[in-house]
Amino acid sequence: MLDAYFPELIANFAASLCSDVILYPLETVLHRLHIQGTRTIIDNTDLGYEVLPINTQYEGMRDCINTIRQEEGMLGFYKGFGAVVIQYTLHAAVLQITKIIYSTLLQNSV
User: Fold this and answer.
1) For the chain, what are the domain ranges?
2) Repeat Solcar: residue ranges (predicted)?
């Protein structure tokens, strides 16, 4: 039974990770467009000891993409991606621990 379902779980994990890596820049653009014009203060997760004000006005999606690319470079689209990495690391750990526990239970029941 473990051999039947575990490959599906791994495939689902890999597909979710790939989609998050591919679509994260679009999420960044959409979030920036959503909070523009507001007096938003966010935590500086890169340094961890200060907050950053966000005061931006974009003229549209294309302007937002160009501004991020010019001011922050291509890595600017992946700001905050560390939280996603931590999420998937924990997800992978849970999958591995579950596999080990389930394998042990199957061996003990035989």
Assistant:
1) 2-109
2) 3-105
